[in-house]
Specification:
Blueprint lengths: L3 H23 L6 E6 L1 E8 L10 E5 L8 E3 L6 E3 L3 E2 L7 H6 L1 E7 L5 E4 L2 E5 L7 E7 L6 E6 L4 E9 L5
Parallel strand pairs: 2-12
Antiparallel strand pairs: 1-9, 2-8, 3-7, 3-10, 4-5, 6-11, 10-11
Length: 168
């Protein structure tokens, strides 16, 4: 009787491990494949006062972000609201930290102010729970701006990014 019990325990452990592996494979969490780790972003950098396009602005995505998630609680009403694909309502990192955690490419806007940054896709065996990052836009004549961005979609269209001119 004592010899049958270890065999039963071994069989149950094997079955549990087998079911765990099968469930992970079926949900694709263990299948290697291209995953979006950080969303791509496109938009136009414009002067906040005139609406004119800003050429020569540096634009990049940084991994220096605080976790914002998919929902947030409105502190006034208490209602739970979805977080839009991009927002400036978050605890922005310092510029130094954002630069340290910047990912390539760093793009420079043309005369028309347009920019496009591709998503960061890599082959991994685990999915990113919420691909996210901080869009950093800076120009020597304007106050830098940071926006929290997350996917889906894999490319977030932020529309017009309005930079405020520096007061000199």
């Amino acid at each position: 009787m004592s010899e049958a019990r270890p065999a039963l325990v071994t069989k149950n452990v094997f079955n549990a491990c087998f079911l765990l592996v099968v469930s992970c494979v079926c949900t694709s969490c263990l299948l290697p494949g291209p995953r979006v780790l950080s969303p791509g972003v496109k938009g136009v950098v414009v002067d906040a006062e005139t609406g004119a396009p800003v050429g020569g602005a540096e634009v990049f995505i940084s991994y220096a972000t605080s976790w914002l998630g998919r929902e947030r609680t409105n502190i006034v009403t208490g209602a739970v609201e979805p977080v839009p694909p991009f927002t400036d309502q978050f605890d922005a990192p310092s510029m130094e930290w954002a630069l340290r955690k910047a990912r390539l490419p760093i793009v420079v806007t043309g005369a028309d102010g347009h920019f496009s940054i591709p998503p960061d896709k890599r082959w991994t065996i685990y999915p990113e729970i919420l691909p996210r990052g901080v869009l950093v836009v800076r120009h020597h004549s304007y106050t830098p701006m940071m926006l929290y961005v997350h996917a889906p979609p894999s490319i977030v269209d932020v529309g017009h990014v309005r930079l405020k001119p520096l007061v000199r």
